């Protein structure tokens, strides 16, 4: 039974409350430090990367924050006294269209707590998307969160109206999930990825799917998280995996547990990027003896310091796959180096610096027509875990 506290019915108050509480779900947010923008009327608007690479402002909101579950980390867990609210599908669809027609948003990220029997709650979420597509002819981006308990027919229906869908895995194994969400079924959540893959093969999931981990609440290691992420990218063609550093919420069983450093979250994103964009395998990600990432250095730099036999590389000859393994050189900088080489430009340290603010980090790892720009890198500080506050 649900014991949630006072219920909010006013539309404006719902927008304030459910827009604010959607911030806990990162699957619709962006990575790279772009700020969350508070809407003047109380909603939350996020810059989101679309499947075609464009970034647009998206209203991120919950259909409801009333929940029948008791996840130990969650602010919306049943029994926690707090304000509760639920949108009727029609009123949320009208609200979104009002914001869209005023030019404030171009897309919708819709999630929800499980506020009633899961299939009925999912049905209401799909109704919002269906109204936007059929009644209001909205052509833009819609991201729908799939509730963990629903069957394939609901996932298939959601894919008809959504650009992208997602389900929160939360933890990397059944054992870890039981520690923070004992009512959730890890196997049933993971089977959604098989369904997503099938829909992608059939061309019925245009923008792919995403998922999210709650980092550190269940005592899991970065090794365990990244191993699952690598499988999701390699075997299921996931679009993105998101990482949310656990922060305690008053009134939950984990309220006295210390929060997880956002540096850990940041390093996970960097390691994720190496797997997703740089061609690194999971086995190549450098980890400490305890199974976690180094906090004092980014994983790409740690990998480079652990493989001195790989460096320095000749900037005028190295192929793209080699260049992107150099600390400070990302995909865009590597492409620009190749472009300059095709144009016959003599690449010097000064030219490299103009290609990006991080390029100077690459100098110790490069040769410029056989010459080093700076003295060879050293390794003594690799294991010094001094992290900026």
From TrEMBL:
Keywords: Iron, Iron-sulfur, Metal-binding, S-adenosyl-L-methionine. SUPFAM superfamilies: Radical SAM enzymes (SSF102114), RuvA domain 2-like (SSF47781). SMART domains: Elp3. Residues 51-284 form the Radical SAM core domain. Its cofactor is [4Fe-4S] cluster. GO terms for molecular function: catalytic activity; iron-sulfur cluster binding; metal ion binding. This is Radical SAM protein. The lineage of its organism: Bacteria, Pseudomonadati, Atribacterota, Atribacteria, Atribacterales.
């Amino acid at each position: 039974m649900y014991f949630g506290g006072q219920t909010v019915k006013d539309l404006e108050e719902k927008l304030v409350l459910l827009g604010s509480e959607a911030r806990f779900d990162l699957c619709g947010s962006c990575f790279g430090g772009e700020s969350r923008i508070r809407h003047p009327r109380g909603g939350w608007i996020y810059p989101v990367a679309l499947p075609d690479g464009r970034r647009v402002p998206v209203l991120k909101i919950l259909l409801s924050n009333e929940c029948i579950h008791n996840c130990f980390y969650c602010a919306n867990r049943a029994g926690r006294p707090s304000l509760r609210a639920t949108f009727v599908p029609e009123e949320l669809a009208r609200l979104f269209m009002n914001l869209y027609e005023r030019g404030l948003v171009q897309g919708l990220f819709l999630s929800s707590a499980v506020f009633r029997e899961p299939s009925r709650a999912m049905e209401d979420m799909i109704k919002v998307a269906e109204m936007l597509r059929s009644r209001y002819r909205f052509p833009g981006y819609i991201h729908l969160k799939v509730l963990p308990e629903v069957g394939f027919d609901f996932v298939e229906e959601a894919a008809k109206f959504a650009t992208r869908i997602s389900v929160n895995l939360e933890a990397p194994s059944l054992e870890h999930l039981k520690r923070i969400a004992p009512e959730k079924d890890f196997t049933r959540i993971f089977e959604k990825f098989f369904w997503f893959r099938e829909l992608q093969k059939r061309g019925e999931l245009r923008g792919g799917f995403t998922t999210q981990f709650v980092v550190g609440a269940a005592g899991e290691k970065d090794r365990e998280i990244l191993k699952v992420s690598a499988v999701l990218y390699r075997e299921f063609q996931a679009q993105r995996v998101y990482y949310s550093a656990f922060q305690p919420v008053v009134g939950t069983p984990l309220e006295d547990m210390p929060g997880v450093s956002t540096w850990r979250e940041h390093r996970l994103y960097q390691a994720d990027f190496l797997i997703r964009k740089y061609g690194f395998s999971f086995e190549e990600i450098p980890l400490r003896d305890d199974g976690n990432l180094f906090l004092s250095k980014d994983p790409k730099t740690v990998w480079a310091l652990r493989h001195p036999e790989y460096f320095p590389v000749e900037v005028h000859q190295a192929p793209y796959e080699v260049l992107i393994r150099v600390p400070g050189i990302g995909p865009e900088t590597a492409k620009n180096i190749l472009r300059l080489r095709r144009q016959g430009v003599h690449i010097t340290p000064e030219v490299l610096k103009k290609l990006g603010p991080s390029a100077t980090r690459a100098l110790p790892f490069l040769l410029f027509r056989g010459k080093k720009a700076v003295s060879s890198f050293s390794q003594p500080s690799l294991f010094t875990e001094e992290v900026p506050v």
